[in-house]
Amino acid sequence: MSNANPVDHALIGYVRVSTLEQHEALQVDALRAAGCARLFTDKASGKLERRPALDALLEQLRPGDSVVVWRLDRLGRSLRHLIDTVQTLEHQGVAFRSLTESIDTTTPGGKLIFHVFGALAEFERDLIRERTMAGLTAARARGRTGGRPTVWTPEKLRVARQLLDSQEHDIAAIARVVGVSRASVYRALRRT
């Protein structure tokens, strides 16, 4: 536990290297030079959702602290993840700094840059959604529907209905005979 006065605001560094072959020395040196007394280090791919050191860092933050990274890509898995993480920090009263890109959310310029990033990420998400919907509409116009093809043939459906109507078989037995799951039997018989 630190002997620091609780009103002191800490610069806390976060280091991430993607592979075991990479070394964190460059990031550590830069963060120490920036004044970070504590560092949290993850040796994991940025694509991983859970990073233990980042989670530990986020749990220990206090309002007024600043999270410092060497480069933006060290913190976020994607632009959306980066923006969400920085917004979470902002809601906690924690600032964010990236040394390489010279972004500091305690300054008006730093806040502006992050709002622009957020707008771009939202625009990208909307474009993807729009393209997906247009593609689905075009496919439907050509008679194609999404999803897996049905395993139910008219013959299988007839057999399942006969077995159920005989009241000698339960749903599990019908599913085994027809070669489908119980849930599929329930859905198919509910539709007919």
Report on this structure.
With 192 residues, this protein is α/β, with parallel strands linked by helices. The chain has two domains: 11-108, Resolvase, N-terminal catalytic domain (Rossmann fold); 154-191. Helices cover 49% and strands 12% of the residues. The protein is built from seven helices and five strands, in the order βαβαβαββαααα. It has helices spanning 25-33, 52-60, 79-91, 108-141, 154-165, 171-178, 182-191; strands at 11-17, 38-43, 66-69, 95-98, 103-104. The protein has a five-stranded mixed sheet with strand order 2-1-3-4-5, with helices on both faces. α3 packs across α4 (108-141). The longest helix is centred in the middle third of the chain and has 34 residues, at 108-141. The radius of gyration is 27 Å and the shape is elongated. Residues 1-7 have low confidence and may be disordered. Residues 10-143 form the Resolvase/invertase-type recombinase catalytic domain.
The helix content is 40-55%
User: How many beta strands in the DSSP annotation?
Assistant: 5
What does the radius of gyration come to? 27 Å
Per the CATH scheme, the topology name of the largest domain is: Rossmann fold
CATH architecture of the largest domain: 3-Layer(aba) Sandwich
Class from secondary-structure proportions: alpha/beta
Spell out the blueprint of helices and strands.
Layout (H helix, E strand, L loop, with lengths): L10 E7 L7 H9 L4 E6 L8 H9 L5 E4 L9 H13 L3 E4 L4 E2 L3 H34 L12 H12 L5 H8 L3 H10 L1
Parallel strand pairs: 1-2, 1-3, 3-4
Antiparallel strand pairs: 4-5
Helix pairs in contact: 3-4, 5-6, 6-7
